[in-house]
Amino acid sequence: MGPKVISLISLAGIVSLAYIVGQQPPEGILTGVTFILMAAAMGLGMGAVFAWIGPSTPKDKVGAVTGVVAAAGGLGGDFPPLVMGATCNAETNSYALGLWLLVIVGAAALVVAGMLRDARPGAKV
C-alpha cells in the first residue's frame, strides 16, 4: 500500500474516532474501545510517517528529516494533554472542545497529506 496510503488511513481513522468521542457518547466499554482504537490509529500513523521519509527525502538528508520529525512527535506527545486540560469544561467534566480541535487538525492534516506528492520519480509512497 505504501506509507502515504497508510498515513491517510490513519488520519481518517483519527478524525472519525475523535468525531465519535467528541459527540460525548455514554461512558462504557465502547467508548473505551474507541479511545484505544484512536491511539492505535495514531501509532499506525507515526510508523507510516517515518516510513514515508525514506523514499521521499534525498538520501543525504534522511537523518536530519527523521530528527525533525521525531522532535515534532515529541512535542506532539506534550502538546495535546495541555490542550485537553485547557479546554476541559469543569462544570460538565467534558473534553469535547479538545476532541473537536483534534477533528479539525486531523482533517486538515488529512487534506495536506492527500495533496503531497513524492518529489522523486518512481518512489513508492
Structure explained in plain terms:
The structure is a single chain. The chain has 125 residues and is mostly helical. The protein has one domain. It has four helices and no strands. It is elongated. The chain starts with a helix and ends in a 10-residue tail after the last helix. 14% of the residues are buried.
Shape: elongated
- Helix-strand topology string: HHHH
Number of helices: 4
Mean pLDDT comes to: 85
Please describe the biggest sheet, giving its number of strands, its sense, and whether it closes into a barrel.
none
The span between the termini is 8 Å
Uncertain regions: pLDDT < 50 for 5+ in a row?
A: none
SSE class: mainly alpha
Question: What's the total count of β strands?
Answer: 0
Residues in helices, as a percent range: over 70%
What is the radius of gyration?
Answer: 16 Å
Approximate strand percentage: under 5%
The domain count comes to: 1
Describe the structure concisely:
By secondary structure, the protein is mostly helical.
Search tags:
4 helices; MFS_trans_sf; transmembrane helix
